[in-house]
């Protein structure tokens, strides 16, 4: 049942559809075609419209237009039958073998006919999706619509994707997605011309694919008896003791694969190894180093028990990959290779013996041996194997494709070695990260990846030469589901950021224009309203930008849709459509303030309110110097992040924090005029599950003359933790010109913890002077 808000959106969509298509031609296609030349006039579909397929083309071309035919039949009552006459009121399909690749197409829309030229069925399929988006939005209805003029604006489109790999991922291990949801997901990938589906099928929390030779993989590994509640970093930990799980039979898999093939999507299965193996070891503990017993994990994270490197384990995994390779016809199989702790291998006689026999100097080389051996097995079966960028450690196998997730560095290194690369960095393409900074956002793993960040990410690093850049196959966005227990939540995180991904992968960098994308997106969201997709309305959210103007801290409010007004309050009360309309920036810093703002269009509130408390303190908007510079992934607004009067959220939102990767930090605040200060607070955070630790120490200094400093106190790690991750130092009031904070990184994370053995991240937020 649709909510009142959804009904309101559908009514708005219908009004917009009628007004737009009656007044002028609009071309709100996503991904945007490489070349689109508007032409006056419109083609009108009616009951006499027919389909003509040129002699050089086979029956599969008619099949490639099945989605368009289905939409016309369902919503418009138009049965798109074939004809032998291509004269008028017809869609003409013609072969053009001079186009760049199999997904390229040319689309001519004239008043009397539509002509599609393509090399292969995929091109005709994508042209049909473009026609679908040019039709009125109500074409997405599942019921017959009357009194609608089914028009397509005249134009000439020449279109071809920039990247051959345009991927979306779905983790079904942490929370299971039924077969029907997966197929609905494929429909949406096809709608946006995304051509790769990465299906994450095995992990510590569930084994989701039937392997007939080893039935306990799904009988035992497919279900868990409890699941962690809340966030990984929450203390004390809470549990839901409901037994949950599920898996796909091989017949289910075949059905999904046939569904994907019809939509020109390659399905890439991922079978994790050597780590993320607990669900498999719960059914077959003999392939571990310790022998178990194990139970399927209900916690998230990384676990020490991984597959043992003994010979029997390789036979076990090869048998599994044999069934997988037989089942999946695509050229790719993903074998993980990430987050595999070496603790068990270090203590395992069989693994140490393997290292001696193979002449391997350490456990990293053993992992490389493991991955190379399994990769060769897949290569011998005619498959190309993909691994996360950890497979670079110890050396790459000859046929390996690297999926670069920990940043661009792994992709750059692999491309320079001549290996193909899929770019999927956390900071730009992880859709389990927050997409809005509003406190009303549902629980997520942390981080911040906005629609704009997805859109503007460049999959081809500038560091690569043109020859090296040829190895970048394209981008992929990932959806990990630790905090996404149902379809509604998964859709919320996927849409509409997947739309930005689609255009990112389709257009060359110099043709991308986020502001133009923003102008087209609302029309696609109207389609999603009709489809009943639970997309995030963060696009409509009011966002706040804090800046310094003439030495004063100011808050500017913005929403992406230019047809929207912002109504706001500053006294903590809830904004309504009757509240004042925002017109000029709001002054901050002189008092505690709670700003509440909503986007309103045609009397309808489009999204959750912006609600932000601003603290008051003497450091507000003052000049800040930070050394060294924070990580590019977590650079916030530079030094202003520490004096913008906003206390950072938990879990981490990158734009509200400065993050330092393995480094100490020095912060200097310089006052415009001397200020009397008696208390200094340095805010940090402690999130061990994300490798973030409160500082080892914070020492504060003051300068009365602006050049010499004296220490006013130092606080150690334990004291900072007890003070809720804040280093608070009091002193007798003194008039000062500068504050300096020396913040020491925690250091190496203890073994047994997430990231054990690696140096911790340091995250800083507000520095408060009172």
Features:
770 residues; alpha/beta; Chitobiase, domain 2; TIM Barrel; Immunoglobulin-like; 4 domains; 8-stranded parallel beta barrel; 7-stranded antiparallel beta sheet; 35 strands
Concise structural overview:
By secondary structure, this protein is of the alpha/beta class.
CATH superfamily of the largest domain: Glycosidases
Low-confidence stretches: 7-23
Q: Mind telling me the C-alpha Rg?
A: 28 Å
CATH topology of the largest domain: TIM Barrel
Instruction: Provide the CATH architecture of the largest domain.
Output: Alpha-Beta Barrel
Largest beta-sheet details: 8 strands, parallel, barrel
Q: What is the oligomeric state here?
A: single chain
Could you give the order of strands across the largest sheet?
7-8-15-16-17-18-19-20
- Terminal-residue CA separation: 53 Å
Number of domains: 4
Average pLDDT value?
A: 93
Which range best describes the helical content: under 10%, 10-25%, 25-40%, 40-55%, 55-70% or over 70%?
25-40%
**What's the count of strands?**
35
Report the sheet-strand fraction: 25-35%
CATH classification class of the largest domain: Alpha Beta
How many distinct helices? 20
Name the shape in a single word.
globular
Structural class: alpha/beta
């Amino acid at each position: 049942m649709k909510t009142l808000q959804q009904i309101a959106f559908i009514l708005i969509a219908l009004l917009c559809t009628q007004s737009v298509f009656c007044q002028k031609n609009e071309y709100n296609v996503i991904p945007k075609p490489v070349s689109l030349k508007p032409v006056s006039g419109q083609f009108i579909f009616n009951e006499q419209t027919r389909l003509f397929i040129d002699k050089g083309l086979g029956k599969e071309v008619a099949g490639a237009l099945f989605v368009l035919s289905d939409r016309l039949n369902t919503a418009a009552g138009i049965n798109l039958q074939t004809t032998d006459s291509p004269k008028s009121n017809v869609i003409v399909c013609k072969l053009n073998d001079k186009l760049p690749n199999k997904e390229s197409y040319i689309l001519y829309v004239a008043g009397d006919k539509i002509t599609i030229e393509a090399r292969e069925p995929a091109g005709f399929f994508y042209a049909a999706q473009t026609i679908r988006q040019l039709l009125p939005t109500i074409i997405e209805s599942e019921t017959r619509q009357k009194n609608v003029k089914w028009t397509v604006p005249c134009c000439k489109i020449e279109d071809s994707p920039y990247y051959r790999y345009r991927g979306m991922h779905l983790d079904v291990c942490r929370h299971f997605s039924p077969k029907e949801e997966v197929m609905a997901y494929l429909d949406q990938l096809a709608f946006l011309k995304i051509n790769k589906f990465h299906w994450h099928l095995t992990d510590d929390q569930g084994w989701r694919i039937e392997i007939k030779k080893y039935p306990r993989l799904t009988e035992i590994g497919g279900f868990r008896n409890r699941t962690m509640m809340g966030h990984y970093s929450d203390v004390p930990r809470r549990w839901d003791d409901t037994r949950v799980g599920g898996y796909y039979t091989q017949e289910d898999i075949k059905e999904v694969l046939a569904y994907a093939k019809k939509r020109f999507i390659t399905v890439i299965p991922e079978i994790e190894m050597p780590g993320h193996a607990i669900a498999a070891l719960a059914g077959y503990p003999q392939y571990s180093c310790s022998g178990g017993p194990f139970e399927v994990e209900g916690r998230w994270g990384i676990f020490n028990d991984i597959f043992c490197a003994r010979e029997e384990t390789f036979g076990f995994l090869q048998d599994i990959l044999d069934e997988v390779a037989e089942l999946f016809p695509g050229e790719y199989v993903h074998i993980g290779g990430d987050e595999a702790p070496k603790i068990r291998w270090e203590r395992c006689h069989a693994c140490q013996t393997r290292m001696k026999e193979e002449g391997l100097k350490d456990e990293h080389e053993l992992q490389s041996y493991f991955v190379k051996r399994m990769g060769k097995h897949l290569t011998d079966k005619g498959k190309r194997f993909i691994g996360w960028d950890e497979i670079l450690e110890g050396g790459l196998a000859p046929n390996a494709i690297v999926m670069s997730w920990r940043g661009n560095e792994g992709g750059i290194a692999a491309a320079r070695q001549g290996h193909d690369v899929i770019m999927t960095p956390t900071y730009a393409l992880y859709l389990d990260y927050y997409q809005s900074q509003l406190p009303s956002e549902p629980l997520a793993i942390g981080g911040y990846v906005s629609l704009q960040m997805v859109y503007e990410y460049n999959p081809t690093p500038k560091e690569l030469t043109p020859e090296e850049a040829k190895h970048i196959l394209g981008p992929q966005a990932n959806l990990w589901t630790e905090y996404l227990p149902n379809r509604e939540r998964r859709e919320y995180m996927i849409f509409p950021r997947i739309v930005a991904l689609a255009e990112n992968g389709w257009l060359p960098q110099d043709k991308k224009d986020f502001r133009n994308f923003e102008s087209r997106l609302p029309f696609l969201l109207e389609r999603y309203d009709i489809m009943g997709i639970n997309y995030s309305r963060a696009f409509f959210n009011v966002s706040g930008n804090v800046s310094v103007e003439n030495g004063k801290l100011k808050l500017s409010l913005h929403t992406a849709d230019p047809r929207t007004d912002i109504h706001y309050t500053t006294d903590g009360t809830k904004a309504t459509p009757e509240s004042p309309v925002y017109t000029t920036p709001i002054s901050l810093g002189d008092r505690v303030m709670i700003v509440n703002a909503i986007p309103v269009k045609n009397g309808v509130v489009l999204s959750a309110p912006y609600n932000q408390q601003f603290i008051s303190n003497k450091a507000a908007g003052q000049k800040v110097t930070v050394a060294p510079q924070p990580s590019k992934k977590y650079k916030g607004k530079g030094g202003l992040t520490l004096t913008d009067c906003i206390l950072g959220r938990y879990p981490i939102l990158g734009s509200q924090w400065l993050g330092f990767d393995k480094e100490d930090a020095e912060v200097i605040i310089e006052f415009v005029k001397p200020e009397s200060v008696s208390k200094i607070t340095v805010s940090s955070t402690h999130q061990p599950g994300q490798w973030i630790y409160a500082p080892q120490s914070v020492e504060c200094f003051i300068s009365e003359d602006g050049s010499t400093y004296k220490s006013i106190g130092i606080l150690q790690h334990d004291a900072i933790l007890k003070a809720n991750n804040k280093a608070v130092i009091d002193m007798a009031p003194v008039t000062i010109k500068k504050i300096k904070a020396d913040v020491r990184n925690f250091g190496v994370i203890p073994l047994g913890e997430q990231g054990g053995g690696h140096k911790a991240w340091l995250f800083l937020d507000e520095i408060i002077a009172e």
